[in-house]
Amino acid sequence: MMFDLLIEGCTLIPHAFAPPIENAAIGITDGRFVHVGALPPGAQATRRITLCNHLVLPGLINVHTHTILSMVRGVAEDMGFAPAYTPGVPQGHMVREDEAIALARLGALEAMLAGSTLINDTYVHTDITLPAMAELGLRVFSCNRIHDVDFSGIAHGRWEHHSAIGETTLNQAMALAQRFHGGADLRTGVQLAAHAPDTCSTDFLHRVRDASQRGGLRVQTHLSQSKVEVRRIRERDGMSPPELLDSIGLLNDHLVAAHCIHLSDSDIALIGRSGLHVAHIPKGNATGGTIAPTRRLMAAGAKLTLATDNMHADMIEVLRWALNMGRVQTGDVTDDWQPEHMLHAATEGGAAAMGLAGQLGRIETGFRADLIAVDLRRPHLVPHNDPLGTLVHTGMGRDVSHVVVEGEVVVDEFRPTRCDMDQVLRDGAAAAAALWARAAQ
Question: Domains of the chain, with CATH numbers?
């Protein structure tokens, strides 16, 4: 039996609800898993990697992030609100193309090194940042912010919607989809990123729905992320944000909705019936003093996925935060909210939200060969009587030693294989410094 890549000797968790397999072998050919189990006699490979004392599991899928916003990390978290709504910090309309590339690559590199094999990124200059991030080796779905509000006024309390802005941003997104969506190797893709109900006028949201249906594209948005959004939609449309999206025809299982924090009982029931994918951002929300009612949303029928949003890209840390914040909501530990449920949300749940169910999220014959390996020889991971439980409760993204995407080793012994990491760090730091200097003027 001949493979392109053979990984052997590891502890394997092939999917979230499977027991660990000791001394497992994983054979990959043409970018897909072709063997999972015991080492076949006489197996040969173009490349063999022995990963004793490593935990191998499916690649993590980060369904909502803004890589460029690493520029405000360590500052925006303590301002109490999202950067787009916050005066005194760099804004998206300030970012130059070269800065966008540098910061996007920095954020994508951080995500990949921490175990994300797919990120769903939105912000600005995506026509150039999407391919620049994909060059690093991970899968990148991306889209520019789709909106018709003038973002330059929001931080100062001005909400002005202009059809010309909406036409430009929607046309940019559709052009991006033409270039990057639907490739045979699924390295890149597009979800239409309607920024939020309050930054898109009601008429414009209808246009986004129509474009989604015409192009066969899924939609993502921020939903009920702030009291400001809820109040503004109530004043403008006489309903809640989920009710507005439902009335338009956007509240369905093709929607990825980030945050979902400020919800009424009827909103939760409505979201549950819709079957949408909640992009749960537990650490980011907690930083702002909020918790999404994930336990009630899941009980109502919504689907759980996980994301980092901005300021950091460690999905292993997100697994821990999602688990613990859910337990805080109910005040107990139950069988239906365990580490394996969080891993499912970050793998198969994420794949379903991206329209890639059955292709990503498992280490199983026929699936696309995305996986990560965690070095268990760290003091905080010893002992590991339950490898997954240990990883979720004490692991970190920096424990990821190897990342494989579409059968290609893109992180090897903690280092990226496609770029000069030190140069990416220097470029990102310089871009952030320049933006902060301009924002202060």
Answer: 2-58+363-416 (2.30.40.10), 60-353 (3.20.20.140)
